[in-house]
Specification:
By secondary structure, the protein is α/β, with parallel strands linked by helices. It has a single domain, classed as TIM Barrel. The strands form 2 sheets. The chain has a 9-stranded parallel sheet, covered by helices on one side. Strands 5-6 form a two-stranded antiparallel ribbon. The chain is globular, with a radius of gyration of 19 Å. The two termini are 32 Å apart.
Length: 362
Amino acid sequence: MKHPWTQEQAQHWYQQQGWLCGFNYLPSTAVNWTDIWQEETFDAITIERELGWAAEAGYNSLRINLPFIVWEHDREGLIARIHHFLQMADSHGFRTMLTLMDDCGFSGDEPYLGPQKAPVPGKHNSQAAASPGRAKVCNRDDWPQIERYIRDVIREFRADKRVLLWDLYNEPGNRGIFTTGTVEVLYDAKLEEYAFELMHKAFEWARDEDPSQPLTVCAWRLQPEETGIDTYTHRLDKAALALSDVISFHAYTNTARMVAVIHHLQQLKRPLFCTEWLARHLGSTIEEQLPLMHAANVAPYQWGLVRGKTQTYLPWPVVMTRSTDYCRLWFHDVFEENGLPFAKAEIDLVRKLSRIGLHPVR
């Protein structure tokens, strides 16, 4: 296995990028990642329009997930659609972070092809589809095919300047969700065990393909706020941080705690990417945290762009049960389906800070 980039290599690369300000992207017409990438539902017209809104607002990067199941069924078609997407994103000035695997299958279904189920009314991200899915992650007999997928996609785009970096595995182990009191607990012991091993394998396979872009997997399990622990203590998170060329993390939390998290991760002396944030009900807001990440030279990727079929403008169920204003205040996302912003002040701030930090440091 090739070694991770050195701290010096990672920081030199990061200095050439300028300040990156991004978002996680699903078009408003897609209910999950499978929906985006299938031939029948790849909606280039909507993608082009929505990326235009984002570019005008000042964003310059985005993160998007790829579906193993579509690659397995239609490899040539998927590769062509990724090229098409990258061309559209590049034409609007975006560098793209590609995510290869994802354990967030909150619909409860294994990934499937064809028309996806309609969103459940009133439910946040109700048809989220994992990649490759719990069954395959938990069956080592399927891993040779997962290896072929990871190697194939990276080999195709390993020198493509439109691809900013590789996020190998989104929230490994995050499939089981239940609520106890006011705390949302995410735990699936079997999936977690296999995901730990598969994440290590993914780094090995990816490094063997020698991409020009850095590799990362996020730390995502912040302990409940009442514990007073402002760092990532889970063994999977620790492994992800140790294996990554650049550090990525998820933090849906209040500003004081975000400051503590950033301070802790800065000790690793690598570039920082907050690849999921923005949860207005939890105090994770653009007005407070975007200036913070700009000042700390953290690359932020908020969850969501346009309100749509994922219904992520609605809070997580555990938040909805104790919130009185969830109908008025959006949880994620920044644009309505017609391109009007949820809050003009938010977009003005994105545009201002992106312009300040737009040009690469020489």
